[in-house]
Design a protein that fits this description.
The chain has 338 residues and is mainly β. The protein is 7% helix and 27% strand. The radius of gyration is 22 Å and the shape is globular.
Protein backbone atom coordinates (compact mmCIF):
# COMPACT_ATOMS: atom_id res chain seq x y z
CA UNK A 1 0.00 0.00 0.00
CA UNK A 2 1.39 3.48 -0.82
CA UNK A 3 2.49 5.38 2.28
CA UNK A 4 0.12 8.28 1.64
CA UNK A 5 -2.88 5.95 1.79
CA UNK A 6 -1.99 4.39 5.13
CA UNK A 7 -4.01 5.42 8.18
CA UNK A 8 -2.11 7.77 10.44
CA UNK A 9 -1.60 5.18 13.19
CA UNK A 10 0.37 3.04 10.75
CA UNK A 11 3.10 5.65 10.28
CA UNK A 12 4.38 5.04 13.78
CA UNK A 13 4.65 1.33 13.10
CA UNK A 14 6.70 2.07 10.00
CA UNK A 15 8.94 4.77 11.43
CA UNK A 16 9.80 3.39 14.84
CA UNK A 17 11.86 0.38 13.67
CA UNK A 18 13.77 2.68 11.29
CA UNK A 19 14.67 4.96 14.18
CA UNK A 20 15.77 1.96 16.25
CA UNK A 21 18.24 0.90 13.53
CA UNK A 22 19.93 4.26 13.03
CA UNK A 23 23.72 3.98 13.37
CA UNK A 24 25.47 6.07 15.96
CA UNK A 25 23.30 5.19 18.97
CA UNK A 26 25.65 2.88 20.83
CA UNK A 27 23.06 1.82 23.39
CA UNK A 28 20.50 0.34 20.99
CA UNK A 29 20.30 -3.44 21.28
CA UNK A 30 23.12 -3.68 23.85
CA UNK A 31 21.09 -3.67 27.02
CA UNK A 32 22.78 -0.75 28.77
CA UNK A 33 20.48 1.18 31.10
CA UNK A 34 19.69 4.77 30.12
CA UNK A 35 21.86 7.40 31.72
CA UNK A 36 20.45 9.20 34.74
CA UNK A 37 18.65 12.43 33.87
CA UNK A 38 20.55 15.57 34.69
CA UNK A 39 19.02 18.44 36.62
CA UNK A 40 17.38 21.00 34.34
CA UNK A 41 18.31 24.66 34.52
CA UNK A 42 14.60 25.49 34.40
CA UNK A 43 12.11 23.45 36.37
CA UNK A 44 8.31 23.60 36.33
CA UNK A 45 5.76 23.03 39.06
CA UNK A 46 2.19 21.95 38.33
CA UNK A 47 -0.04 24.64 39.85
CA UNK A 48 -3.23 23.76 38.01
CA UNK A 49 -5.16 22.84 41.13
CA UNK A 50 -4.36 26.06 42.99
CA UNK A 51 -4.71 28.33 39.94
CA UNK A 52 -8.54 28.17 40.17
CA UNK A 53 -8.76 27.70 36.38
CA UNK A 54 -11.66 25.29 35.99
CA UNK A 55 -11.94 25.45 32.20
CA UNK A 56 -12.93 22.20 30.49
CA UNK A 57 -12.75 21.97 26.72
CA UNK A 58 -15.70 20.38 24.91
CA UNK A 59 -15.53 19.33 21.26
CA UNK A 60 -19.31 19.46 20.88
CA UNK A 61 -19.51 15.87 19.73
CA UNK A 62 -22.70 13.84 19.70
CA UNK A 63 -21.29 10.58 18.36
CA UNK A 64 -21.35 11.45 14.64
CA UNK A 65 -17.57 11.95 14.28
CA UNK A 66 -17.65 15.28 12.45
CA UNK A 67 -14.19 16.47 11.44
CA UNK A 68 -14.40 19.79 13.38
CA UNK A 69 -14.14 17.70 16.55
CA UNK A 70 -10.57 16.76 15.60
CA UNK A 71 -9.16 20.29 15.27
CA UNK A 72 -10.48 22.43 18.14
CA UNK A 73 -9.01 24.56 19.87
CA UNK A 74 -6.15 26.98 20.62
CA UNK A 75 -5.86 29.69 23.27
CA UNK A 76 -4.49 33.21 23.67
CA UNK A 77 -2.25 34.63 26.41
CA UNK A 78 -2.37 38.43 26.67
CA UNK A 79 -2.74 41.26 29.19
CA UNK A 80 -6.34 42.20 28.46
CA UNK A 81 -6.65 44.88 31.16
CA UNK A 82 -3.07 46.24 31.06
CA UNK A 83 -2.40 45.49 34.73
CA UNK A 84 0.99 43.97 33.94
CA UNK A 85 -0.14 40.35 34.30
CA UNK A 86 -0.80 37.87 31.50
CA UNK A 87 -4.38 36.61 31.24
CA UNK A 88 -5.66 33.58 29.32
CA UNK A 89 -8.53 33.32 26.84
CA UNK A 90 -9.83 29.81 26.12
CA UNK A 91 -12.09 29.31 23.08
CA UNK A 92 -14.41 26.36 23.38
CA UNK A 93 -16.46 24.14 21.13
CA UNK A 94 -20.23 24.25 20.87
CA UNK A 95 -22.90 21.63 20.42
CA UNK A 96 -22.74 20.14 16.94
CA UNK A 97 -25.88 18.91 15.14
CA UNK A 98 -27.32 15.83 16.82
CA UNK A 99 -25.70 16.44 20.21
CA UNK A 100 -28.34 15.35 22.70
CA UNK A 101 -28.68 16.36 25.44
CA UNK A 102 -27.07 19.72 24.65
CA UNK A 103 -24.06 20.66 26.77
CA UNK A 104 -23.74 24.32 25.70
CA UNK A 105 -20.02 24.81 26.36
CA UNK A 106 -18.71 28.36 26.69
CA UNK A 107 -15.44 30.19 26.15
CA UNK A 108 -13.53 31.47 29.19
CA UNK A 109 -11.41 34.52 30.04
CA UNK A 110 -9.20 33.86 33.07
CA UNK A 111 -7.88 37.08 34.65
CA UNK A 112 -4.47 36.78 36.28
CA UNK A 113 -4.56 38.25 39.77
CA UNK A 114 -0.97 37.32 40.61
CA UNK A 115 0.55 34.47 42.54
CA UNK A 116 -0.44 32.00 39.82
CA UNK A 117 -4.13 32.43 40.65
CA UNK A 118 -6.85 33.40 38.18
CA UNK A 119 -10.43 34.64 38.29
CA UNK A 120 -13.11 33.70 35.76
CA UNK A 121 -14.21 37.08 34.38
CA UNK A 122 -15.84 35.77 31.21
CA UNK A 123 -19.33 37.07 31.87
CA UNK A 124 -18.15 40.45 33.20
CA UNK A 125 -15.95 40.89 30.13
CA UNK A 126 -18.83 40.17 27.73
CA UNK A 127 -17.16 37.02 26.37
CA UNK A 128 -19.65 34.48 27.74
CA UNK A 129 -20.75 33.36 24.32
CA UNK A 130 -21.32 30.14 22.42
CA UNK A 131 -19.39 29.57 19.19
CA UNK A 132 -17.27 26.73 17.90
CA UNK A 133 -13.82 28.20 18.54
CA UNK A 134 -10.75 26.81 16.82
CA UNK A 135 -8.09 29.51 16.51
CA UNK A 136 -7.60 32.81 18.36
CA UNK A 137 -5.12 35.67 18.44
CA UNK A 138 -4.79 38.97 20.30
CA UNK A 139 -3.48 42.36 19.19
CA UNK A 140 -4.33 46.05 19.03
CA UNK A 141 -6.41 46.36 15.87
CA UNK A 142 -7.57 49.95 16.39
CA UNK A 143 -4.37 51.41 17.88
CA UNK A 144 -6.05 52.48 21.13
CA UNK A 145 -3.47 50.72 23.30
CA UNK A 146 -5.70 47.78 24.32
CA UNK A 147 -5.39 44.28 22.82
CA UNK A 148 -8.39 43.06 20.84
CA UNK A 149 -9.35 39.47 19.96
CA UNK A 150 -10.21 37.60 16.78
CA UNK A 151 -11.50 34.04 16.97
CA UNK A 152 -11.56 31.70 13.99
CA UNK A 153 -14.43 29.26 14.31
CA UNK A 154 -16.46 26.56 12.69
CA UNK A 155 -18.95 29.17 11.64
CA UNK A 156 -18.51 32.93 11.35
CA UNK A 157 -15.23 34.38 12.54
CA UNK A 158 -15.67 36.90 15.36
CA UNK A 159 -13.85 40.13 16.16
CA UNK A 160 -13.92 41.48 19.71
CA UNK A 161 -12.94 45.08 20.43
CA UNK A 162 -11.35 45.73 23.82
CA UNK A 163 -13.24 48.67 25.30
CA UNK A 164 -10.44 49.52 27.76
CA UNK A 165 -12.55 48.91 30.86
CA UNK A 166 -12.15 45.14 31.07
CA UNK A 167 -14.98 44.43 28.62
CA UNK A 168 -15.13 43.41 24.97
CA UNK A 169 -17.64 44.30 22.25
CA UNK A 170 -18.44 42.01 19.32
CA UNK A 171 -17.76 44.23 16.28
CA UNK A 172 -17.81 41.47 13.67
CA UNK A 173 -20.70 42.89 11.67
CA UNK A 174 -19.29 46.42 11.52
CA UNK A 175 -15.79 45.15 10.73
CA UNK A 176 -17.01 42.83 7.97
CA UNK A 177 -14.94 39.83 9.07
CA UNK A 178 -17.55 37.07 9.53
CA UNK A 179 -16.34 35.21 6.41
CA UNK A 180 -19.34 32.91 6.08
CA UNK A 181 -19.63 29.55 7.79
CA UNK A 182 -16.18 28.12 7.06
CA UNK A 183 -14.28 25.70 9.26
CA UNK A 184 -11.52 28.03 10.42
CA UNK A 185 -8.16 27.24 11.99
CA UNK A 186 -5.11 29.32 12.94
CA UNK A 187 -5.25 33.13 12.79
CA UNK A 188 -2.53 35.77 13.06
CA UNK A 189 -2.22 39.58 12.98
CA UNK A 190 0.40 41.32 10.87
CA UNK A 191 0.98 44.69 9.25
CA UNK A 192 1.32 43.34 5.73
CA UNK A 193 1.52 46.66 3.88
CA UNK A 194 3.40 48.75 6.44
CA UNK A 195 0.61 51.28 6.98
CA UNK A 196 0.68 50.98 10.77
CA UNK A 197 -2.55 48.97 11.07
CA UNK A 198 -2.73 45.28 11.89
CA UNK A 199 -4.27 43.10 9.18
CA UNK A 200 -5.71 39.63 9.76
CA UNK A 201 -4.68 36.35 8.14
CA UNK A 202 -7.02 33.43 8.88
CA UNK A 203 -6.27 29.88 7.79
CA UNK A 204 -9.26 27.79 6.73
CA UNK A 205 -9.42 24.02 6.93
CA UNK A 206 -11.78 22.00 4.70
CA UNK A 207 -15.23 22.39 3.15
CA UNK A 208 -17.25 20.43 5.69
CA UNK A 209 -21.01 20.22 6.11
CA UNK A 210 -22.90 17.89 8.47
CA UNK A 211 -25.53 17.40 5.76
CA UNK A 212 -25.23 13.88 4.40
CA UNK A 213 -22.22 13.11 6.59
CA UNK A 214 -21.39 9.42 6.88
CA UNK A 215 -18.59 8.30 9.17
CA UNK A 216 -16.22 5.79 7.53
CA UNK A 217 -15.57 2.47 9.22
CA UNK A 218 -12.44 0.42 9.69
CA UNK A 219 -13.23 -3.25 10.46
CA UNK A 220 -16.70 -2.15 11.50
CA UNK A 221 -15.51 0.58 13.84
CA UNK A 222 -16.61 4.15 12.95
CA UNK A 223 -13.71 6.60 12.53
CA UNK A 224 -13.21 10.20 11.48
CA UNK A 225 -12.67 11.36 7.93
CA UNK A 226 -9.28 12.90 7.23
CA UNK A 227 -8.65 16.22 5.46
CA UNK A 228 -7.99 14.49 2.14
CA UNK A 229 -11.62 13.40 2.08
CA UNK A 230 -12.75 17.01 1.62
CA UNK A 231 -12.10 19.90 -0.72
CA UNK A 232 -9.83 22.48 0.93
CA UNK A 233 -10.66 26.15 1.46
CA UNK A 234 -8.34 28.92 0.42
CA UNK A 235 -7.30 31.09 3.37
CA UNK A 236 -8.66 34.57 4.07
CA UNK A 237 -6.76 37.85 4.29
CA UNK A 238 -8.51 40.89 5.79
CA UNK A 239 -6.91 44.28 5.15
CA UNK A 240 -7.38 46.79 7.96
CA UNK A 241 -8.81 50.02 6.52
CA UNK A 242 -7.94 51.97 9.68
CA UNK A 243 -11.50 53.04 10.47
CA UNK A 244 -12.87 49.88 12.08
CA UNK A 245 -13.63 48.24 8.73
CA UNK A 246 -11.76 45.35 7.11
CA UNK A 247 -11.74 44.36 3.44
CA UNK A 248 -11.38 40.79 2.20
CA UNK A 249 -8.24 41.21 0.09
CA UNK A 250 -7.50 37.49 -0.32
CA UNK A 251 -7.50 37.62 -4.13
CA UNK A 252 -5.56 40.84 -4.71
CA UNK A 253 -2.87 39.92 -2.18
CA UNK A 254 -2.30 36.51 -3.79
CA UNK A 255 -3.44 34.51 -0.76
CA UNK A 256 -6.41 32.97 -2.59
CA UNK A 257 -4.22 31.65 -5.42
CA UNK A 258 -3.73 28.36 -3.55
CA UNK A 259 -5.94 26.27 -1.29
CA UNK A 260 -4.99 23.74 1.37
CA UNK A 261 -6.35 22.35 4.65
CA UNK A 262 -4.87 25.17 6.73
CA UNK A 263 -3.89 24.75 10.36
CA UNK A 264 -1.27 26.79 12.27
CA UNK A 265 0.18 30.02 10.88
CA UNK A 266 2.93 32.39 11.99
CA UNK A 267 4.04 35.78 10.70
CA UNK A 268 7.80 36.45 10.56
CA UNK A 269 10.41 38.18 8.41
CA UNK A 270 11.82 35.11 6.72
CA UNK A 271 14.19 36.90 4.34
CA UNK A 272 15.17 39.84 6.58
CA UNK A 273 13.91 42.44 4.08
CA UNK A 274 11.90 44.37 6.67
CA UNK A 275 8.37 43.09 5.92
CA UNK A 276 6.30 40.26 7.34
CA UNK A 277 6.05 36.93 5.54
CA UNK A 278 3.71 34.07 6.46
CA UNK A 279 4.40 30.39 7.10
CA UNK A 280 1.17 28.40 6.88
CA UNK A 281 0.83 24.74 7.82
CA UNK A 282 -1.48 22.43 5.91
CA UNK A 283 -2.72 19.10 7.25
CA UNK A 284 -1.38 16.21 5.11
CA UNK A 285 -0.69 18.62 2.24
CA UNK A 286 2.12 20.94 1.17
CA UNK A 287 2.84 23.79 3.58
CA UNK A 288 2.94 27.37 2.28
CA UNK A 289 5.46 30.15 2.65
CA UNK A 290 3.95 33.43 1.50
CA UNK A 291 6.75 35.89 0.71
CA UNK A 292 5.71 39.53 1.11
CA UNK A 293 6.96 41.93 -1.58
CA UNK A 294 6.73 44.82 0.89
CA UNK A 295 3.41 46.18 -0.37
CA UNK A 296 1.20 43.47 1.12
CA UNK A 297 1.22 41.23 -1.93
CA UNK A 298 2.39 37.66 -1.47
CA UNK A 299 4.02 34.93 -3.56
CA UNK A 300 3.80 31.31 -2.41
CA UNK A 301 7.37 29.87 -2.31
CA UNK A 302 7.06 26.92 0.08
CA UNK A 303 8.47 24.33 -2.32
CA UNK A 304 11.55 26.27 -3.41
CA UNK A 305 12.43 27.22 0.17
CA UNK A 306 12.20 23.65 1.46
CA UNK A 307 9.19 24.20 3.72
CA UNK A 308 6.46 22.45 1.74
CA UNK A 309 7.39 18.84 2.54
CA UNK A 310 9.60 16.83 4.86
CA UNK A 311 13.08 15.49 4.07
CA UNK A 312 11.70 12.59 1.99
CA UNK A 313 9.24 14.71 0.04
CA UNK A 314 6.13 13.75 2.00
CA UNK A 315 3.51 16.11 3.41
CA UNK A 316 3.08 15.96 7.18
CA UNK A 317 0.04 16.19 9.40
CA UNK A 318 1.20 19.73 10.15
CA UNK A 319 -0.51 21.37 13.13
CA UNK A 320 1.13 24.08 15.28
CA UNK A 321 3.99 26.43 14.42
CA UNK A 322 6.17 29.07 16.03
CA UNK A 323 9.40 30.90 15.22
CA UNK A 324 12.44 32.26 17.00
CA UNK A 325 16.18 32.69 16.57
CA UNK A 326 17.20 29.31 17.97
CA UNK A 327 20.95 29.63 17.31
CA UNK A 328 21.30 33.40 17.78
CA UNK A 329 22.59 33.97 14.25
CA UNK A 330 20.15 36.80 13.51
CA UNK A 331 17.80 34.66 11.38
CA UNK A 332 14.37 33.49 12.51
CA UNK A 333 14.02 29.71 12.60
CA UNK A 334 10.76 27.74 12.47
CA UNK A 335 9.37 24.98 14.67
CA UNK A 336 6.34 22.95 13.66
CA UNK A 337 4.44 20.11 15.25
CA UNK A 338 3.06 17.23 13.23
Amino acid sequence: MPLDRLPRWAWGAICLPIVALLPGDATIGRGEPPSAPTAAAIEFEDVTATSAIAFVHDDGSGGHRFIPETVTAGLATFDHDLDGRIDIYFPNGSDLPGTDPPRRPRAMLARNRGGWRFDDVTAAAGLDHESYGVGVTAGDLDNDGFPDLVTSNYGPKRMWRNMGDGTFLDVTAAAGTADGDKLGAGVVFLDADGDGDLDVYAANYVRFSPDGHVSPRVRGVPVYHGPRDYEPWSDTFFRNEGDGRFTDASVETGIAAVAGPGMGVVGFDGDADGDTDLFVLNDVAANYLFRNDGTGRFEEVGLETGLAYDMIGQPNGSMGVDCGDVDNDGWLDLWMTS
